[in-house]
Design brief:
Elements (H helix, E strand, L loop, with lengths): L11 H8 L5 H25 L19 H7 L2 H34 L5 H10 L5 H15 L6 H25 L2 H9 L4 H12 L1 H17 L2 H5 L9 H6 L11 H27 L10
Length: about 290
């Protein structure tokens, strides 16, 4: 018998429990704090990028005289545009190779019954424990000997080394969540194991693939240490390194405005990438896959 039928009203604690956490003011306060810490740095970056000349030395919350002078200067710099193209090539190639290799490696680790799977995953993940600074100097010497120094291929290879372990581990978790019955049904319909893999498994693992792709792209797009160590000329530099070499009109001028404008420009592809794939990540393509 319900509390309404008996004439008793639920206690405040029980009512708060029924309303859920979305009605708790402390939750909204925490969300507001996180949003402030996330948005304020971005706003300040955009604010600084719209200032020029003496306005750069002011701490005003809005630019006194907004101008796109910094953006025009950055986009008119051929070295920056070339570095932007290099970043697109390196990040896109690294992401595609990481997805291809990681999916082929993660599928058997998730499906096949074999000994030593935990050991294999442990060895794969151990690669991520090595800091970039520990391998930068040896790789510089090796790349010099192999002729890969100051080339885009010389950046893609180490980037792939660092993105593959996490990609494999993440996709193994997603492949394990896909019911085996779907593959068995595909085999009954006459498909081969490879056809079942790319026609059944890969579409259902799309949220995981999108997540792995975003993480790999962000790493390759933002990486600075190896890009600065393994390149020396503008022809092979990526955007983070190109920004580090920005100079002002004179040796006494800090290029704060152009650096801010360049940072805003290179952040746009990452924001668009997350927005485009956000629906695919949260759509839950595996929901209801085995109903009926």
């Amino acid at each position: 018998m319900s509390s309404t039928a008996t004439g008793r009203q639920p206690s405040p604690r029980r009512r708060a429990r029924r309303r859920g956490p979305e009605h708790n003011p402390l939750v909204w306060c925490a969300i507001a704090v996180v949003m402030v810490f996330s948005i304020v740095p971005v706003y300040w970056l955009v604010n600084t990028s719209l200032k020029a000349g003496p306005d750069l030395s002011t701490a005003s919350l809005t630019p006194p005289r907004p101008t796109f002078e910094n953006y025009l200067a950055v986009l008119g710099d051929s070295q920056f545009v070339g570095a932007l193209v290099n970043s697109v090539i390196v990040a896109t190639t690294t992401t595609l190779l990481a997805l291809a290799v990681a999916s082929f490696a993660a599928y058997p680790l998730a499906r096949l019954r074999m000994r030593g799977k935990f050991l294999i995953l442990s060895i794969v993940l151990s690669v991520t424990t090595f800091p970039g600074i520990a391998i930068a100097a040896p790789m510089f010497s090796l790349w010099n000997d192999l002729g890969l120094y100051n080339t885009l291929v010389g950046l893609i290879i180490p980037y792939l080394t660092f993105t593959l372990p996490l990609s494999i581990y993440t996709l193994v978790s997603f492949f394990k969540e896909i019911p085996v019955e779907l593959e068995e049904a595909a085999y009954i319909d006459g498909t081969s194991p490879f056809q079942a893999y790319y026609k059944v498994i890969l579409p259902l693992a799309a949220p995981g693939i999108a997540t792995v792709g975003i993480l790999a792209f962000i790493f390759a797009w933002n990486e600075f240490l190896l890009a600065a160590t393994l390149t020396y000329s503008p022809e092979a530099r990526t955007v983070p390194v190109a920004i580090a070499f920005f100079t002002g009109a004179s040796e006494y001028e800090q290029p704060l405005g152009t650096i801010s404008a360049a940072s805003v420009i290179i952040s746009i592809p990452l924001v668009l990438l997350v927005l485009v794939f956000q629906r695919k990540i949260v759509s839950g393509l595996t929901a209801g896959a085995v109903k009926g």
